[in-house]
Known about the structure:
By secondary structure, this protein is mostly helical. It has helices at 5-16, 20-27, 31-39, 49-56, 60-64, 70-88, 92-104, 109-120, 130-146, 150-167, 171-178, 188-193, 203-228, 236-256, 263-282, 286-304, 316-324, 336-349.
Amino acid sequence: MNISIGENIKKMRNQKGITQERLAEGLGVTPQAISRWESGAGYPAIEYLPDLAGFFGVSVDELLGVKLSEREARREEIYATINHIEDCGYNPTAIELLREAHAEFPGDRKISLSLAKALCSVMWEEEPDRTLLREAEKMLRDLIRQADDNDFRFACIKELAILYKEAWKDEAGYDEVVKLLPGIDSCREVFITDCFNGAVRKQDEVRESVRTLARKTVNILRDYVAYSLPNEEKDWDAKIVSLRRLIDFTGWVSEWTGGENSEETDAAVAVLCRYLSTYYVAQGKKNETRDSLTDMLSYVERVCERPSVNDKPHNIAWYFLPYLNSDRYDPVRGEDWFAALRKQLEELAAK
Length: 351
């Protein structure tokens, strides 16, 4: 009998829309244990099987992969379609497909949220269908009210907040919805890293929380530098310095916490390198553009080497490729190194 419990745990966790941390909390184990199970590096002890099965609402046999009903196979097919739709963008055909999936699985939260997001996407049209937007608002409010998982609930709240901000142009409503989200002092990572909260903490949990907080901070500062600060030509050198400091900071955090960069951290640094290249190429600095894009490729390769990217519809290289088609890179498009780099990225994206 081929037991694929790790794969099944990951699939069922994604179906419920919860994180490894949330599942670990429910079982009383560490997120690292969940990661080991899902990667096949280890298996849950037998005493955890009933709790795991109960958490996901399946039998132990189903958890072990002994059987998978036709209905669940159909659900997996729909999830694959959702991933494709979210990668390629929403359109009327996608909305109809998601409506059909929602009618088939009305209680599936992932399908419901995907349909709500598809309906929200019409807000960006020149003349948006307000009937669809009102339907999306009602769906999101229902999902928020019914959600028993904080991560899923917060995802719905964020979508609803954007709807109020961009579609309804309702600042008061936007502020009201945003207040449903917890402040940073209430988040798990801040609590775990607080040395004075009186709780006994495991070192690996503290380190992972520090990495998560640092990564989020870097992403926020990256976008602040790129989009919120003045963007005149005279400001570009200062922006380059700031981006390089963020790259250094990311490396220091990895060193301080005694571990290699995670997949998310490597991806974040790859984005920073790409941002750097846009300022360098705008300044006419071809060598610096080449170096920053080469660094970007190096981090993309590191992400693609990880086993966890193999079960996704597209890897990180696929998402980076369109940026190299931008007109901003025309000054270096004829360079041999640029063509070689783009070819390497295409090969990675095709894996």
